[in-house]
Write a structure and sequence with these properties.
The chain is mainly alpha-helical. Helices cover 49% and strands 6% of the residues. It is built from 11 helices and 5 strands. A 3-stranded parallel β-sheet has the order 3-4-5. A two-stranded parallel ribbon has the order 1-2. The longest helix is centred in the last third of the chain and has 19 residues.
């Protein structure tokens, strides 16, 4: 994607998304967890790098939306990631803790440019990052488990109403700090609709059931996510 972004021509992002979407659709897939909407501003970043279209949000944003359109025209739903932005980190959340020290105001002028573009385009899926953003939330918890990031910022301030999916919950940034059950319950309470890839699925499932039975998570909260999932499934079938 970095090479495509370097061309400066969003039509190349469209062609890429459409080409990938075409063969995914042929193989029977209808969702692609792409494109990366991160702005790769930190040269010491070891995980995003050339997966991002650019280190400039004004270049990355039209690339993201054109890639999404390319997928859509091929019959595939895209997913922008990793909210609120993994491009200004040094560590890799696959293996452990990573953070961004940016304030929300700083993110608004950089990372949020691409995410806002994707939301305005009509993106149906946003994937969370397991990074912490202490200067936004006041805490070190991963964004995946932060209601400040997912509810206050993404849903209320940015107006996003569609599906929020967690990055893989088997990644080190989660498993080194939380049990499978704590992580699953925590991200649902924060606003995640789909808990992707728990390290031990049965533990995560049982913990969510127990949390509902105990009143820690309401059935209404579960129903909100189910309705979003069913709405997306219905739109894909069309």
């Amino acid at each position: 994607m970095g090479a495509i972004g370097a061309t400066g021509d969003p039509r190349n992002a469209y062609e890429c998304g459409n080409t990938i979407g075409t063969y995914l659709h042929r193989y029977g897939f209808d969702i692609d967890f792409a494109p990366v909407a991160d702005v790769n501003t930190n040269p010491e970043n070891i995980v995003i790098g050339a997966r991002a279209f650019s280190d400039k949000p004004e270049i990355a944003a039209p690339m993201v939306t054109n890639y999404l359109q390319g997928l859509k025209d091929a019959g595939v739903t895209g997913c922008i990631k990793h909210f609120p932005g993994h491009g200004d980190t040094k560590a890799d959340t696959h293996f452990g803790y990573a953070s961004s020290q940016k304030t929300w105001e700083e993110m608004l002028s950089c990372e949020m440019v691409t995410f806002k573009a994707g939301i305005q385009w009509g993106c149906q899926l946003i994937m969370t990052a397991h990074i912490s953003a202490p200067n936004v939330t006041g805490a070190d918890m991963p964004a995946t488990m932060s209601s400040v990031i997912l509810q206050d910022k993404l849903r209320r301030e940015l107006g996003y109403q569609n599906l929020i999916i967690a990055d893989a919950m088997e990644m080190g940034a989660i498993t080194q700090q939380y049990t499978n059950g704590e992580a699953a319950v925590g991200c649902i309470k924060a606003g995640v609709d789909i808990v992707l890839g728990p390290q031990v699925f049965t533990e995560a499932f049982d913990a969510v059931i127990k949390a509902v039975e105990a009143g820690e998570i309401t059935e209404q909260r579960i129903d909100e996510s189910v309705r979003r999932i069913l709405k997306l499934k219905q739109s894909i079938r069309k």
